[in-house]
């Protein structure tokens, strides 16, 4: 099963634009030469961020990679550009099994960008090895890592929290962020700057009601086998909404109800 539904993603247009713009700002702040020979967008999804990168950085060449063939099909259909190529590729696959065209890019990628994608990757060491292989001398990696919060904190009673902790073994924030720091250091990338921030996105309630299935599916990867007969989709949906959603009094220009969603992101800037 794919991690996301490409068509839903495309229709809603929820491309996490604010976090992506922040990453692009970081790329610009760290590149005083103002030249971008080859930019790689890892977990590029339907290509919205590749399009943004093209507009903002005007690179010579962009390569978008995503594990999901449906996403790459949407990217090719809707966000094809003259200097852009899209490939189906898992960032955490061993290098010698990578697509041969991508292997040719070893040591040539000047900017590795990834927005809202790497929280799906558990094999951070292999992913970091691959990024180190791709990066050119003086290259830069600019990525964000999503931490989905301590959703147990809204469990209600201590007893319910303990039960949820048995059902869902979600790693701590230290583990999530620390595993990436360790992975990059282990491949010699130790010039690492990290910044934490909490961007807020506003969605029509109707749209977020569909979108929420993605974080629900993501959390479900951490379920243990002690869930019993509970409807975990429903439980997770409620916990996520209690933890990070705020109903807004304002309406959209079309009169739709709006919801504000808090995100927790760790931005990494890594230089060779
Ligand atoms: C929430 S989407 C973000 C898409 C895009 N970066 C954006 O900001 O709009 C996350 C993407 O990461 C991709 N992804 C998940 N695991 C991956 C992996 N191991 N290698 C490459 N892409 C992956 C998913 O298929 C999905 O398209």
From TrEMBL:
Residues 39-144 form the Methyltransferase domain. InterPro entries: Methyltranfer_dom (IPR025714), SAM-dependent_MTases_sf (IPR029063). Pfam families: Methyltransf_31 (PF13847). This is Methyltransferase domain-containing protein. It comes from Medioppia subpectinata. The lineage of its organism: Eukaryota, Metazoa, Ecdysozoa, Arthropoda, Chelicerata.
